[in-house]
From TrEMBL:
Chain ranges passing through the membrane: 31-53, 86-104
Protein name: Membrane protein
Lineage: Bacteria, Bacillati, Bacillota, Bacilli, Lactobacillales
Record Pfam families: DUF1980 (PF09323), DUF1980_C (PF21537)
Domain DUF1980 residues, every copy: 2-117, 142-282
Length: 284
């Protein structure tokens, strides 16, 4: 019976996350079908456990019977009550967290707490498994070098032919990755995009970052992605102010990173409403 309750709990959790819209804060929305599949599978398994429980409850003479009255059952090696208790507790823990703990949208307080840095090369840190997701979305960790370069160059052809780059929620992470990978191809182009303002303590008031929080596959590889901007004279924004800007891409030296990074010389900017979903997702 406990197995049935846990499995039906997973079914309800997946349904709750999708109906409430909270699922978008855990995984890439393009993988929503996996959550639907897991919900259906959990429901099927729950029904199987319910049928098994009913059958075993009526066959008390069976060697592997489920004795509901005494609370004993055969658990493939988990014969002691405390072992079964620990197993069920671990299985139920995601349900408790999913239902009881609220999800909180990321904002600049996360950036201030964790800081951000330009992605370090694997060689520079001496650890081939290090994955850093700040400023520049990096999907190279999911492909071999040849396939990655091929995909990036193919995507680049969609943007280099035009003088203006319009960044949408759908292509946000792709465009940002291309700009950081091929900055010389974008210098001089006009860019338009939306994001939230972040005033770094290391910047003067005119230079602020405009970011979006993005998810590549799931929340484990999420990060804060965007560009440094030089705002027009007299324009200033507080942290978490959402803006829509248009400007020209150029390259500039950023002292904290000790390197050249892409920047935007903003010509037009306006404050906009915070979007319903603050996250952007990588399309493949």
């Amino acid at each position: 019976m406990i197995r049935f309750l846990i499995l039906i709990g997973y079914t309800m959790l997946m349904m709750f996350l999708q109906v409430s819209g909270r699922l978008d804060q855990y995984i890439n929305v393009h993988y929503r079908y996996l959550a639907i599949l897991s919900m259906a599978l959990s429901f099927v398994l729950a029904m199987v456990q319910l049928i098994i429980w009913n059958k075993e409850d009526s066959k008390k003479t069976s060697e592997h019977q489920h004795t509901h009255h005494h609370g004993e059952e055969h658990d493939h090696g988990l014969n002691k009550p405390y072992q079964r208790g620990i197993a069920y507790l671990l299985l139920a823990l995601p349900l408790v967290i999913g239902f009881m703990f609220p999800t909180v949208s990321l904002d600049t307080s996360i950036v201030e707490a964790k800081g951000f840095n330009f992605p370090l090369s694997k060689e520079s840190v001496g650890d081939p498994d290090v994955q850093t997701q700040y400023l520049k979305p990096d999907t190279s960790i999911y492909f071999d070098k040849t396939d990655y370069d091929k995909q990036m160059k193919q995507a680049l052809t969609r943007y280099i032919k035009d003088d203006k780059v319009t960044v949408t929620e759908e292509n946000y992470l792709e465009v940002m990755e291309l700009i950081y990978n091929y900055p010389s191809e974008f210098i001089g182009k006009t860019i338009t995009y939306k994001g939230f303002a972040f005033n770094s303590s290391q910047n003067d008031q005119a230079n602020i970052f405009v970011f979006r929080f993005g998810i590549i596959h799931c929340v484990a590889d999420s990060g804060v992605f965007g560009l440094m901007t030089h705002m027009p004279e007299g324009q200033s924004f507080k942290n978490n102010d959402w803006v829509e800007l248009t400007g020209t891409i150029h390259s500039g030296y950023y002292a904290p990173f000790k390197r050249e990074i892409p920047m935007v010389d903003v010509t037009k900017v306006k404050k906009v409403e915070e979007p319903k979903n603050q996250y952007v997702y990588r399309s493949f």
